[in-house]
Amino acid sequence: MSALTIAQQVSALHQYFASNKTRSLDWRKEQLTRLKGLITDNEDKIYQALKQDLGKSEQESWVSEVGYLTGDIDHSLKHLHKWSKPRSIATPMVAQPGKSFVQPEPLGTVLIIGAWNYPFQLLLAPLIAAIAAGNCALLKPSELAGATSSLVAKLIPQYLDNQAIAVVEGGVEETTEVLKQRFDHILYTGGEAVGKTVMKAAAEHLTPVTLELGGKSPCVVASDCDLAVTAARIVWSKWMNAGQTCVAPDYILVEKGFAPHLIEAIKTKLQDFYGQDPQQSPDYGRIINDRHFARLSQYLEGQQVVYGGQQEAGERYLAPTLVMAPEPDSALMKEEIFGPILPIVTLDKIDQALDFINQRPKPLALYLYTGSAATEQLLLEDTSAGSVCINDGMMFMANPDLPFGGVGNSGMGHYHGRWGFDTFSHLKAVMKRSTWFDVNWRYPPFNSKKLKMLKWVK
Ligand code: NAD
């Protein structure tokens, strides 16, 4: 799409929003139902595209993309009426007789920029929230997941209201052009550096942003955890999508004496899940492209690999890999890994995990495996993270009533369920006063008696 047509496209979306068509609950419900049809009618094509882009298995694609999205649509359809109703608020004595409420209203035309690792889910989950809230939307899928990007660009116009929802495909050049336009909100999913670019562009138009970024999500394993379940859940959450998950555990923090037990348990689970040779497993994914493969391969240079490490560049295959005691200032421990390498950082005492976490940027997710309520409380009270999951990895994503988003360097704002509805709504404050009673204390001419009465009712 040329620069001119991107500008025209955005202008057409703004005009359509002004027609008020998208405000009606019937329109929103119809679009959400059609979006569900888009997904269910084309399930096999979606699986094929995800296999082509990331070597994802059908089950993984269902859990993290297709099933996730249809569940999100059902949840939104079920609650839409309630979410969109005026929300009653108490009115203070000074404003009596009167009533107050919050009236959610759509923002207008929003931009949704997706990332490549869950290329279908990360583009369409924000769209569900944007439609539920009654907006027009422009979608920009990630060019790195090319098969999914073209499938989305082909299907959206076939199923959804073309005047309200549009797709622009492309990379940096097209996104830069898109970002020159004025939107009423931008939700961006991706890395920190581009997040800054998006925020700068948005500032030109004073457009609010939701930035769904990443970072290094620590996983603290205390020696009083349930070892077998802990290992299974770490392996599931780390090696899904070959570790290319924003909320995957990035590294483990564990006491020295317990580390060998944990490593053995993780190895056992890896073999249970992916067999002796994960390269042959249909359930194990591949790295998105050669650049990311080379980046991950470099992380392993000079590291003490205690399991895995096998690579085949032609296939972009990197085995599930465990690295023991990496140097804190190595690239592996400074950059977000976003791949199938799990470093094990050992501590003398598990309490040292708090300092280790707090000395680094605030993570998107933080995991703790423990049987102790006191350890749990300590971590919850003394650290900060976008989300915390105790005794599991990324299962918190399965609860649509929990907000999803980062804090500090891991992002700003949130979505999922009603949180997404609210992100794409303006929560308009409304007060309605009655006129049958009108005390004159606030009106000039002022005197000490009026002031005394005001102080009394405040
Ligand atoms: P990416 O390369 O797919 O980029 C994301 C989007 O930004 C794409 O649509 C891309 O076209 C666009 N883009 C890239 N460069 C640009 C530029 N210079 N100007 C404007 N737009 C540009 O994805 P990525 O950044 O490699 O994604 C990986 C990161 O995303 C990781 O840090 C990961 O943790 C994070 N992530 C976060 C979430 C979340 O929900 N919080 C989900 C997935 C990924």
Automatic annotation (TrEMBL):
Q: Does the keyword Oxidoreductase apply?
A: yes
The UniProt entry's GO CC annotations, sorted and at most eight, read: cytoplasm
What organism does the record attribute this protein to?
Bowmanella dokdonensis
What are the record keywords, sorted?
NAD, Oxidoreductase
Q: Which GO terms describe its biological process?
A: aldehyde metabolic process
- SUPFAM superfamilies for the chain: ALDH-like
* Family as reported in the entry's similarity comment: Belongs to the aldehyde dehydrogenase family.
> What is an example of a GO molecular function annotated in this UniProt entry?
aldehyde dehydrogenase (NAD+) activity
Q: Which domain of life is it from?
A: Bacteria
Q: Which Pfam families match?
A: Aldedh (PF00171)
Give the annotated active site: E212, C246
Domain Aldehyde dehydrogenase, which positions?
Answer: 9-430
Q: What is this protein called?
A: Aldehyde dehydrogenase
PANTHER family, per this entry? ALDEHYDE DEHYDROGENASE, ALDEHYDE DEHYDROGENASE TYPE III, ISOFORM Q
